[in-house]
From TrEMBL:
Transmembrane segments: 27-49, 61-82
Domain of life: Eukaryota
Keywords: Membrane, Transmembrane, Transmembrane helix
Protein name in the entry: Integral membrane protein
Organism: Aspergillus cavernicola
Length: 135
């Protein structure tokens, strides 16, 4: 098994570009940045409305802050995939030895996303319970 060869056999007539594979990292950075900015604006508006306007700081706010921190951890892992091999790269343009770091970053990202789910769902459930059963 050649670790410096392509991770997958290329189709007939295609020559693997292992040194500088074509990618769409610019598109990925643009989309990820736009999503991060949108999430930050929503997080800030929610915090402002709940804490400043309503003068309430309840358990939901703590859970949202924890979820926001997990969101940035997952975003960091997602941006780390730009280094190896990049976004929208065919498998035959990736060296076999570069698959392991890519899978490791993908695993870290999925674990951070799992951690993101618990506080965000708990916050939603706490808000729904507070609305459904007022004191």
């Amino acid at each position: 098994m050649d670790l410096d060869g392509p991770a997958l056999a290329p189709p007939e007539g295609v020559i693997p570009q292992l040194n500088n594979p074509p990618n769409q990292n610019g598109v990925a950075i643009g989309v990820l940045s736009a999503c991060a900015v949108f999430a930050t604006i929503c997080f800030s508006l929610r915090g402002y409305a709940r804490v400043v306007l309503l003068k309430k700081f309840q358990i939901e706010e703590v859970l949202v802050i924890i979820a926001y921190g997990c969101f940035w951890g997952a975003t960091y892992c997602t941006l780390a995939l730009i280094e190896t091999p990049g976004y929208f790269v065919h498998t035959w343009n990736v060296r076999l030895r570069d698959v392991i770091p890519t899978q490791y970053v993908s695993f870290q990202s999925s674990m951070r996303r799992k951690k993101l789910t618990a506080p965000s769902m708990s916050s939603s459930l706490a808000s729904a319970t507070r609305l459904s059963f007022p004191p």
